[in-house]
Amino acid sequence: MSSQHPSGGYGGVAGQGGTPGALTRLSPHALLTPAQMGAADRAAPAAGAPGAQLMEAAGAAVARAIREHWPPMPVCVLCGPGNNGGDGFVVARLLRDAGWPVRVALWGERAALRGDAARAAGAWTGPVEPAAPACLDGAGLIVDALLGAGLGRAPAGALESLIQAVNAAAAPVCAIDVPTGLDGGSGRCPGAVVQADLTVTFCRRKPGHLLLPGRALCGALVCADIGMPDAALAPLVPEAHANHPDLWLDVFPWPRTDGHKYRRGHALVVGGERMLGASRLACQAAARIGAGLVTLTAPSSAWAIQAGALTSVMVEALPPDGALDQVLADPRRNALLIGPGLGRAPQGRRQVLDLLATRRPCVLDADALSVFADRPEALIDALHGQCALTPHEGEFARLFDPGPDAAPRAGDGAPSRAVGDKLQRARAAARRCGAVVVLKGADTVIAAPDGRCVINDNAPPTLATAGTGDVLAGCITGLLAAGMPVFQAACAAVWLHGLAAGRLGWGLLAEDLPGELPGALAALADGYGTHDGTHLWRT
Ligand SMILES: NC(=O)C1=CN([C@@H]2O[C@H](COP(=O)(O)OP(=O)(O)OC[C@H]3O[C@@H](n4cnc5c(N)ncnc54)[C@H](O)[C@@H]3O)[C@@H](O)[C@H]2O)[C@H](O)CC1
Ligand SMILES: [K+]
Question: Where is (6S)-NADPHX annotated to bind (predicted)?
Answer without folding.
Answer: 83-87, 148-154, 177, 278, 341, 392, 470
